[in-house]
Specification:
Layout (H helix, E strand, L loop, with lengths): L1 H8 L9 H6 L19 H7 L2 E2 L4 E2 L4 H13 L1
Antiparallel strand pairs: 1-2
Helix pairs in contact: 1-4
Length: 78
């Protein structure tokens, strides 16, 4: 429900919040061989554009479902 609220608040159809079902089965720790991570499967480059990632200090907001949802909404809106 929170993902839907985020998308609606940013003017996007709530149905787009089902993309992570296809991308990661809503697995918070999903990662691909290509380097995508999290429920939204952000690649490092797009992740750095919308999220804070600092591998040296073990911080990767791609693994935060709500922060990544906000980032995904902004990316899709763009």
């Amino acid at each position: 429900p929170k993902m839907e609220e985020i998308f609606i608040s940013l003017g996007l159809p709530k149905e787009l919040t089902r993309i992570p079902l296809v991308e990661s089965s809503f697995n918070l720790y999903a990662h691909s061989r290509a380097g995508a991570k999290g429920v939204w499967q952000f690649m490092p480059k797009s992740g750095h554009e919308y999220l804070f990632i600092d591998e040296k200090h073990g911080v990767d907001e791609r693994l935060s479902p709500l922060k990544a949802t906000i980032a995904a909404a902004k990316l899709l809106k763009r």
